[in-house]
Amino acid sequence: MGHRYTKVTPITDDGVYDKHLSISHQPGTNRAVQHLHPCDETPVRAERGGGDRRGVCGGEELEEKGGGGEERGDRELKEASRVQEKRKRGKWWRRLISILTPAKKPLPESPSCQQCNEGEQMKVAWARKSSDDYIFSHYTIGDKLGKGGFGVVYEGKRLEDGLKVAVKYVTKGQDTECISIPDHPNPLPKEIALTILANKGPSDPHIIKLLDWQDHEDHYVLILECPSPCENLEEFLYHRGGTLDENTTRHIMEQAIHAADLCCQRGVFHRDVKLENLLINKETSEVKLIDFGCADILKKSSYKTYDGTDAYAPPEYKLKGKYYGKPATVFSLGMVMFALLCGHFPTHYDIFQLKYKRYTYIQPSRSKDCCGLLRELLNPHYSERISLSQILSHNWFKVYI
Ligand SMILES: Nc1ncnc2c1ncn2[C@@H]1O[C@H](COP(=O)(O)OP(=O)(O)O)[C@@H](O)[C@H]1O
Ligand SMILES: [Mg+2]
Q1: Model-level pTM greater than 0.85?
Q2: Which InterPro entries does the record cross-reference, listed alphabetically (predicted)?
């Protein structure tokens, strides 16, 4: 499988929303922007101890209030003792809570130095675990569900009602972009912003829901719905022996295509539709599109840098260095469908055979309609590729069992 690039093209001229660089915060202020409510509400600044602006780690620094000399010294002294008092009360209160509530499962231990990045993330999480406004204090953290380019995803439980959730912790890098979206006063990391936008409108079962989130200076956290029991399509395929039959593939593809199309209708270009980013519920076979970490605002003009997974990159990007959102989405859906049916990604030679309708070369047992759709999805010429909105009208989907 390919890897993910980290560079993102800034949204320019025809992007719908303002472009912002990563939020640049002043040292000594609480940088958390949190959201503990339905995901399309306005986030509020996370505040500790009744709204004091304090240092990020442990609330050690005092509020800076201007003024000078003795008066200021006095004020600081009073403030210091007030903070001390509050901290003592906090500790007492926390001790009581820790006695009364069942022990939370601790965050996983920092792994070996081969996984320093992940270890660092968890150390930060651990250090802030005791803070009541930190998002982790509302959830217990369980086993690791997965790990991608930047994020680590853990199974979790919402303390309030025991709901099973997925907790995604993402370390911010230099390339982490923030954008502004309607109804949110502060720019948000793109992944959060685009997950919110993809969920705007009537709830859709095929797009993962964002239940909660929090943004910090060096990382952000997403609390996502967690279908159960589920696995991603790569795992599902592996457990099914490496290939799927046409009916199973059709059922999965219908849902994946619907999700990708709906994202585009909502102005979101997912850009990383792939096996690992599609979850399937093993009992109901319901499929959900996850991971908006490579997503961008859908625009009409071309994209000139690719932020996604190499193996799924459209040929027009490899040949000409540019591509369009919807045709690229169609190509990635073709890669998913081919992988599900054949157990590997198509080679150039496979795509060549499809082009000339030598279908038996691809898979002798697959129907003509099935290979015909693969041919349309994987057309190397993006302008001749089937359009995203037409895919579900293809003959292959007109099957009545
Ligand atoms: N909401 C979720 N429910 C269950 N498993 C999930 C969920 N989100 C992610 N995962 C698992 O974690 C893996 C990595 O998550 P993903 O969001 O794709 O992270 P990355 O951005 O690092 O690729 C997925 O392939 C999937 O197996
Ligand atoms: Mg992923």
Answers
A1: no
A2: Kinase-like_dom_sf, PIM_Ser/Thr_kinase, Prot_kinase_dom, Protein_kinase_ATP_BS, Ser/Thr_kinase_AS
